[in-house]
Each structure stands twice: as C-alpha cells, then as structure tokens.
Description:
Blueprint: E1 3-9, H1 15-28, E2 42-46, H2 62-74, E3 80-82, H3 91-98, H4 100-106, E4 117-121, E5 130-134, H5 135-139, E6 142-152, E7 156-158, H6 160-163, H7 170-179, H8 183-197, E8 201-211, E9 219-229, H9 232-243, H10 251-258, E10 269-273, E11 276-278, H11 280-287, H12 299-310, E12 318-320, H13 330-334, E13 342-343, E14 351-352, H14 362-366, E15 372-374
Parallel strand pairs: 1-10, 2-3, 2-6, 6-8
Antiparallel strand pairs: 1-9, 4-5, 6-7, 8-9, 10-11, 12-15, 13-14
Helix pairs in contact: 1-2, 8-10, 9-10, 9-11
This protein binds iron/sulfur cluster (2 copies).
Amino acid sequence: MKxxxxxxxxxxxxxxxxxxxxxxxxxxxxxVERFFSREEKILLKPNLLRKAAxxxxxxxxxxxxxxxxxxxxxxxxxxxxxxxxxGVGSMEKIAEGCGLADxxxxxxxxxxxxxxxxxxxxxxxxxxxxxxMAKAVTEADALLNLSKMKxxxxxxxxxxxxxxxxxxxxxxxxxxHTRYSxxxxxxxxxxxxxxxxxxxxxxxxxxxxxxxxxPASGNPVAMGVMLISADPVALDSVCCSLMHLKPDLVPTNxxxxxxxxxxxxxxxxxxxxxxxxxxxxxxGERYGKADFDVERGKKVRRLWRQIRWISRHFQRRPYxxxxxxxxxxxxxxxxxxxxxxxxxxxxxAPVYDYKKCIACFCCQEMCPQKAIQVK
Length: 375
Ligand code: SF4
Ligand code: SF4
C-alpha cells in the first residue's frame, strides 16, 4: 500500500477557499471522522516559532489553522485546543501577534498549557527514550500537526516531522539541541518523538513558503499549495519535490523511513490532486519551483563533515550582520550551550565564541531582524 499525500492548490489565504480545499482533501483520505472522534480532546499544533506577521511565512498561517478547526467543529469535534512551545517569548504574545489568538477566540477554541512540563518515558525509542513534554500534549487524546513549508539550516527543510519539536516544553527544547547536536541524531530524535506522540494527521501550509535563510529569516515565496497526509515522511518528501530538493538529502526523511515512521521514495507515494494521481516527482515538476532557494549540495556536505572532523574552522556557522542588529539580546537568550556561545556587550553587536558553538542555529532562528546569517 502506498502512502497518500493530498496536494491542494490555493493561490492565497482566502479562508473560504482554504476550507473548501481542505474539505475536498479530507474527503480523499476518508473524511475527518476517519481520524478523529467527537469525544476526543484534540490538540491543534501549528508552528509558532516566534512573533511574526503571518505574511512573513515564519508561522503557520492562522487562516489554515482556522479552516481546519472549522472542519473539525463541523464534524462534531468540540474539545479542541491549540498551542506550541515557542522558542523565545510567550505563546500568548506570538499567537496575538500573528492573528491566531483572535481567530481561535472567534471559534471559542482555548489556548492549551505549554508552560507546564511532564517527563515521559519511551522505552521503544531508538534515539530518545524520554521526553520533557508540554503538559498539553500529554493531556490530549489526539494531535493534529499543522506545519509550515520552510527551509532549515540544520535539516535543509522543516515540515511535518520537525514541527513536532514544539511538543517539547520550552526550556527543554534548547537542551535537546546540545544532546542531539548533529543533523542525523537530531533527526532520529524527531522521528522517535513522532512515533511516541503519533499525531493522527499532518497538514502543511505551503501557500506562502519560506526559502533561503529559514526557518525565521528567509524570504516568503508563493508556492500556492497545502499538503495533507497521515504519513509525515511522505508529506515531507512531497514538500522536497516541490522545492526540487532530493528527499534523501533530508535526514528526517531517511531516518524516518529507517525507523518505520513513513516512506519517502517516489514509487511508495501517491500524490492525490484534483487533476489526478501523480508521483512526487511529477507533482514537483507540475506544481513546484525549480529555483526554490534551498541547500541542495550533497558532496559538499559530506566533504564538510570530513573537514569538520579535522578542523572546526570549516564548520558552517552563524555570523552577525552588524548593520541589521538592534542589540536586543534574543540570540544570547536562545543559545542552549552552558555558559553561552554568543555574548552581547552593548553598544557592540553580539560576538560568537566558535569554540563553544555547536552550530544548532537557535540564535539564527530567533533573531527578529534577520541579522544572523550562516556561512
Ligand atoms: S543578532 Fe539579532 S537577536 Fe542578536 S542582538 Fe542582534 S538583532 Fe538581536
Ligand atoms: S551561538 Fe547560536 S549556533 Fe552557536 S550554539 Fe549558540 S545558539 Fe547554537
């Protein structure tokens, strides 16, 4: 049996059009009722990385979250809540800033508790055997993952699998970057996290995606698509095809398949569209963007790894574009390394201690000014 990924076309964030498309997409997968029952407490988990206007493509657009929530409400699922473990700041402020708080208020959907932490054991884990979860995740009966199509410095792209990292309670998210400090181990931990929580359904907002210096400082780009699937690896693989990025260059795809979370190969996925069933490659050719700005190099990466083993000076690392920096200190706050690998003494711009830096790019993700680039 092939994994199914529904590809929906949507030129903009018109709420009615999004809902109509999602309704059609859900029908292709057996309807809302196939995934959720009325009595269940369902947690909506968008990407709320940091405070940003929805058109900047940093967060899952509120129109997509609302439309999906409305479909659940129409199906009789009344016990809905929403939330995400944010990088820096408070979830309340981020939800207010992007318009999600108002949209959820209109639907009478409460914000869940992502501040409290519950330590959970997962003996079956292949990389991670315990998680410090946000309490809201442990209290939900079912989770609906609503990710954003974006580039990522560590994993090349972030989508369905990576979006689950927001289930880890805030403080422990930073620690995870030090424990799983390379792309492969981080990907394996993410796969375990998905296997443990088992979201029922994954939806991706790719109407406006982010290319370049993602996941927070890149450029919005019109892709005009949404994806739905129960298989997060297949969904991310289709996302890669749309970005014209080979899916096997993304560690969460490769590790996800190895660890039994899903499939990424072209012949293992049916992409369902209104124009018929396609393979991911065909979908990429028809609806993707050949010049999508994402890191595609393979040999260079391998070579980098070897060089890094010899000398840390050749490692990809962040640097500050001083003219853009407003000296807010958020990057210092975001650094998970004990004793910090970045420091700020005003009025100077922040300074890196590359001997301590583990290249997790948390600082780059959190900078509100796009002042941190990667070289
Ligand atoms: S680099 Fe970004 S996050 Fe750090 S102080 Fe400057 S503006 Fe703030
Ligand atoms: S300085 Fe930035 S990239 Fe380096 S460890 Fe700290 S947060 Fe990660």
